[in-house]
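Ticket #4471: structure output looks truncated?

Reporter: J.K.
Steps to reproduce: submitted the chain below (331 residues) through the standard prediction queue, then opened the result file.
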Amino acid sequence: MTTGHANKSDTVFCINATDGKVIWKHSYPAELGDKYYEGGTSGTPTVEGGKVYQLSRWGNVFCYEASSGEIIWEKNVQKESGAKIPDWGFGGSPLVLDGLLILNVGSGGMALDKKNGKIMWQSGKESAGYSTPLPINRGGEDFVILSSGNSYLEVNAKTGAKIWEFPWSTRYDVNATDPIVSGSQVFISTGYNKGCALIKVGSDVQTVWQNKELKNQLATSVLIDGHLYGFDGNNTDSRSPFKCVEFATGALKWQDVSIGPGAHMVADGKLIVLTGKGELIVAQASPQKFEVISRAQVLTGRCWSAPVLANGRIYCRNSTGDVICLDVRGK
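Returned output as attached by the reporter:
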């Protein structure tokens, strides 16, 4: 599943993962939203239980039948709730959790009944952040951590009641990356020279450490074996280094300035990195050094979307909508 924009319309595409053929697509009128960048769609559709859920930048929510693209229900939650549209539009993907569809809309999220789109709870109307709601379970109860325009916070998934909130003001109110949770600790990071912090949550919120070693603007860092790997700086800065930072202390272990900004994921102890200029790099996730295993130029143009590994294939795309599939299954 992916999305795109053309001819004054947003489109949701269902593409055959093996041969790239379009199985179905659905288009609807939408603004390009290119005031600050090229514009187009942002959040990734969410697939669960044979259904596809999508939240557009402008508050349109769709529930599709995954096999056919038939629309089961649709609505515009921004118009219904009066929640402010963030400067770059809504950006987080929907989260399906125990019959609810949880969205990063409003100052502390919103939940819909996934069967029919009815609003079950909503928060204040102030600007949301751009992160995807992150589920956690504590004592058999579900909670969600997400960003607002000026904080990160946790809410009860069933009721929307706020559990804690950590002020985190940034330029342009851009809290775009997802939090990283390890036990009772939560790592957050933002670009625009804001930096990062590790906080401990419970009856209150305590700052474990805070610095500017990892300023994640768009791509969320990954945590593996006690170390964070991520891009430091804004995606428009060609000098943004890729770094390894110790999770417990915030200490820098190494940095590499050769690849510039991009997006990445981790699998089997390896980093899969797609640079902003379309080079795909596979490297060992090691706190000792940036150890490249393989690299190849696979796309041109601006690449801000994270690469995706599934069933032995890596999928990459650029801002103009070109999609490429690489077979990495070996012999």
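Triage note (M.O.): checked the attachment and the full token line is present. Residues 1-151 form a domain with the Lipocalin fold (CATH 2.40.128.630).
Status: closed, working as intended.
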